[in-house]
Amino acid sequence: MRLLRKVLASVTAVCAVGAMSAAVGTGAAGAAPARHAAKGGGVITFAEQPGSPPTYIFPLYNGANSQNSDITYLQPLMWLPLYWFGHPTSSAATINYKLSMADPPVFSNGGKTVTMKLKHYVWSTGTPVTARDVVFWMNLVMNEKTNYAGYVPGGWMTHVAGYSTKGTTTFVLTMTKGYNQTYLLYNGLATLTPMPQQAWDKTSASSPNGTYDTTAAGAKSVYNYLNSRSESLSTWDKTPLWQVVDGPWRLKPTTGFQVTGQVTMVPNTKYSGPNKAKASEFEEVPFTSASAEYDALRSGSVDYGYVPTTDIGALASLKASGFKVDPWYEWGLTFLGILFNNPKYQALVGQLYIRQAMQTLINQPEYIKTILDKYGTPTYGPVPTFPKTNFLAKAETKNPYPFSVAKAKKLLSSHGWTIHVGGTDVCAKPGTGAGHCGKGIAKGTKLAVSLMYPSGTPSVDNEIQVMRSTFAHAGFHLTLSEAPENTVLSDSSACIGKKAATCPTNTPVLAIWSSPAYTYVPIYYPDGTSLFGCGGATNAGNYCNQTANKQLTQIESQGNAASIKTLYKYQEFLAKQVPDLWFPNAAYQISAISTKLKGVSAQDSTGHIYPETWSLES
Amino acid sequence: MTRYLARRIAQAVAVIILVTMIVFGILHFLPGSPARAMLGVKATPGAIAAFNKANGYDRALPMQYLLYMDRLVHGNLGFSYHLDQSVGSLLALDLPKTALLVGVSYALAIVIAIPVGLAQALKRNKAVDHAFTVFAFVGYSMPMFWLAMLLIVLFAVQTHVLPAQAGTAASSVGAVFNNPKVLVLPVATLTIVTVAQFSRFMRTSAIDNLLQDYIRTARAKGLSQRQLVTRHLLRNSLLPIVTLIGLSLPAVISGAIVVEAVFNYPGMGWLFWQAASTQDYPVLMGFTIVVAVATVVGNLVADVVYAVLDPRIRYSAT
Predict the structure, then answer these.
(1) Does residue B161 form part of some domain?
(2) Per-residue model confidence as pLDDT tens digits over B140-174
(3) Comparing A126-135, B33-42, B149-158, which segment has the lowest mean pLDDT?
(4) How far is A382 from chain B (nearest CA, A)?
(5) Cβ–Cβ of B32/A493 closer than 8 Å?
């Protein structure tokens, strides 16, 4: 009995020591309220998306490093593009000349020559930002096109005839063909980013600064050097290169970055643009999961974070504890891709009336209301319906195919299909005439296709399950398969650019990989050339319509007034053509912003953040 | 014993090579592609081809494997294209953090579970036994993430006594030592679950031994309860626990995905999860090799300790 008591006493002691060490070890330090006080009102904490730490600091980034944590949360705070898109006070994805480093571009020579005059900006070294710094960018990007995420084969970079400086502050770009001004501004000029030629034109750490970028070989060497420095994450905050900035922020020297993704920025005291930083530090904090972030948010250690979609029901308590909740939408769209060159199913999806029937069976308003908890926007065509811009045609603000099972059934039955509610419709009248199933559809063909969707996204899962059920009401059978997002993306892109004969028949006919599925960043013009143009670089479904293709060509080359009219016609045409199934666009994140954080008046749909305009109330 | 050890080490090397072959093959037959996973929806066919060429994925699989092994024997574990860092540096960063988290949890669990299990055995079917049995069943059946959530709500959200997440404080093992309070909740979560498991094994083992003839003999010879427990019961009852601890070594290395995710403590488990979701083959392979080595070593150590604890066990080199 004595022994037992000792055993129990030892257990109790171990537990007690643990508890005591916990209490002693934490005290007030772990407590959330103390954190704000400790920050003295000057350190703003911003939550990164889970599992998405910054991985690339060099602003000439490749496709593998084009996540928001790199291209909108990190690089633009330190290196400003020549033309800034997005606004701190609205969600509009439009040009912002006030925050741009150059005056509006002047087009001449039939739209072939563009002249850009830089405003007075200085590098953190004190030297002015010059047109030569833009040439430095151009020299590197033109020689490393395939390593730049903004490069689109056949796009504007393919048609660059030359570029030069005129004086120290004017940059001149010459194209081989005349471009629509808005189109080139949004897709081409938007990517120009002056880089500090005097500090970065090096081929190694020991090489002196020079003009290596002026030759193709030299430009490649400079790129390789800067790329290698960028891939050395542990040295970002110790490398003098990355301390030369022209944006409002710079990495805090020696402790500004940790390879786990923690970013600490301090104001660039030499910043010469508008909106000088108010906070003393800006921290971006990595998270392993959305729930970990939410716990941190609720315990008060994050000022600007997000609510996991699974916790949307608990918003009232979050608001009560001092947070405002605001959905953040991206400049993009969501759709279920349709594969047009699957040899087994191309006859089915090639019929417009079948695509129209499918679209009619998708109840976007209801999905947004009940599944996305109202945190979603509808997609009716290639131009995002939110935020509203001049690019959006009136016709595209309305659903061309409102939800109606009856209409879908009528569409199918009027084209020779025998409807089997809850089962699978069968083609009863093959042929190409009116009231027949259409070209290539044999008698007895079943109305059934495969649909692949991503695992791990409850809202998409719910939408797809409801969709299958609704489709079944019209006798349209969907065979669902679930896979990780990258598998969906990979499988649904397997036939890109292929002829039907070489496309495997088991390639999914319908696929959705994420919501939003596609963003117009950093190529801001919302026509979706690469998605819907014949042979488009990312046209995974191989949709090709000559009318739409002709309109795309006109949009690119017409004058502004004519081009926007063509864009309206194009989006109305495409919305009705259903090149894919338009689907609700979920919010990028449901942001939770501390009421102590002042100055956050809007969330930019281009993904940019403006911590220089924020301040923390103690 | 020396010959036995030599034979076991040779077997271990063979096992590890076999594991690399199997894992390498399985990874490359998984659906999807690392190029798509990395480059995303906007990747052009040209960009994908360039990625595959740069990473050697355009070569035949056996050649890819041989090149990988060649780099491996030269100490190069590869480069993570998702995290833009060498696999060696990622493992060097995360392994010590995970070893600290899981190691401390297991150490605490052992220190608590052994006396608890013994106490339950000695007071079988009494109130003490029932109380710890309830604790063990609740602890073991409760999902780990749920337990973690409860602790967070109680100690971080409601009372602000402890931090809800490690975050910056877990950027390196040095940072964790500088701010040890971030370990308290994740360690407590792992420890509670592990105590529940270990104490049941200890209880069962001790009860089995209490029924053995040698215990009755020892009692008949007039040994006190303390001598009986410390000299005979404890030592013999520890044998299954030793096996458990040996098998736990891989867990110390591979981490605890759930706890790391919930407490924002980026370690080996989280690294593996990230790599799996982005098809980051170099990281997956590097991780697998390290865990395979840990598994083999853990088993080897358990066997040796087994022999030390139980003099009846003799290993033959033949």
Answers:
(1) yes
(2) 888 888 999 999 989 988 888 888 888 777 778 88
(3) B33-42
(4) 15
(5) no
